[in-house]
Amino acid sequence: MTDLDRVIHEPARLLLVALLAGVAGADFLWLQHESGLTKGNLSSHLARLEEAGYVEVEKTFKGKIPLTVLRLTRAGKGAFDRYKKQMKGLLARSS
Amino acid sequence: MTDVPDLNDIARRPTRYWNADGLSELMMGLLWILWGGAWQLGQALPRGQTWRVYTMLTPALLALSAVAATWATKKLKARITFPRTGYVEWKEPTGGQRLAAAGIALLSASALAAVIAKSRAAGFERVAAPSMGVLLSLSFLVASLRQRAPHWLALAGVALALGLAFGALTIGWDAAYWLLMALGAATVLVGGLRIKWFLDRHPLEDRG
Questions:
Q1: What is the pLDDT confidence band of residue B118, given thresholds at 50, 70 and 90?
Q2: Which of A89, B22, B36, B130 is disulfide-compatible with B191, CB 3.0–4.6 A?
Q3: What is this structure's pTM?
Q4: For residue range B33-45, what is the model confidence (pLDDT) as tens digits?
Q5: Would you identify the CATH topology of the domain A6-84?
Q6: Which residues on adjacent β-strands are paired with residue A65?
Q7: A24 contacts in chain B (CB < 8 Å)
Q8: Helix, strand, coil percentages in chain A from 3-state DSSP, rounded to 5
Q9: Nearest to A18 among B1, B10, B89 (CB)
Q10: B170 in Cβ contact with B8 (< 8 Å)
């Protein structure tokens, strides 16, 4: 368990990373709807992921409406893939 | 939020989100009505120069209508869905996925063309509607199970019932065209109801 990435291993952040891994990008509202997290909780987890370099934030416009799109970075994708492999390995060993 | 999330389930959520609002059913239904109607119109036209031009142009126009429907669905999602439940950029298919889709489409089209070419002697037009009904019903069934969308189970039942009913009428190819139009109307109805439910459940909030 000591090798597991602690940033991703936290269930809420794992959920966010897994959600972002399935899309090219998404906004705060979609992540909030899908994760069921409160705004404050979601913000703090996203800040932690951004700090780790796993998520990038792009501020853009859709027509005249401002839009903040969140994406998983290359490092984030790599970390998520590594985490899944490690978990599979752990589960295989325990069964 | 202490439970470990089911990663396989989460991986399917973006696809489910595409179908969350009923817009895709609405567009699919409209497409089927258009396709069925266009082929039915072709049958009704008197054979001649106009008919030849019509039958030559129709397949390309119908193929184009599928592209237009995808474009329109995306535009409608930007206006209706995204302001309510959030914006998503879906992943573009990879080169391999595009190639596989093109291969399947080419194989299906070739098989269909071969079946139609041999159909006059074999009387395929009599089984076209039930076959289409069964195929569409199976597609709805698989999609329903994969996407956890129980309303598609109802559409699977409707497709099967309509296929068998129109097949029993023994009206040749018309049965297949009427099946498309009737199933299209049912799908539009389901799509319309689901859009209404979606709008009721997700009122527009002030995001400022």
A1: low
A2: B22
A3: 0.78
A4: 999 999 888 888 8
A5: Arc Repressor Mutant, subunit A (1.10.10)
A6: A62
A7: 89-92
A8: 60, 20, 20
A9: B10
A10: no
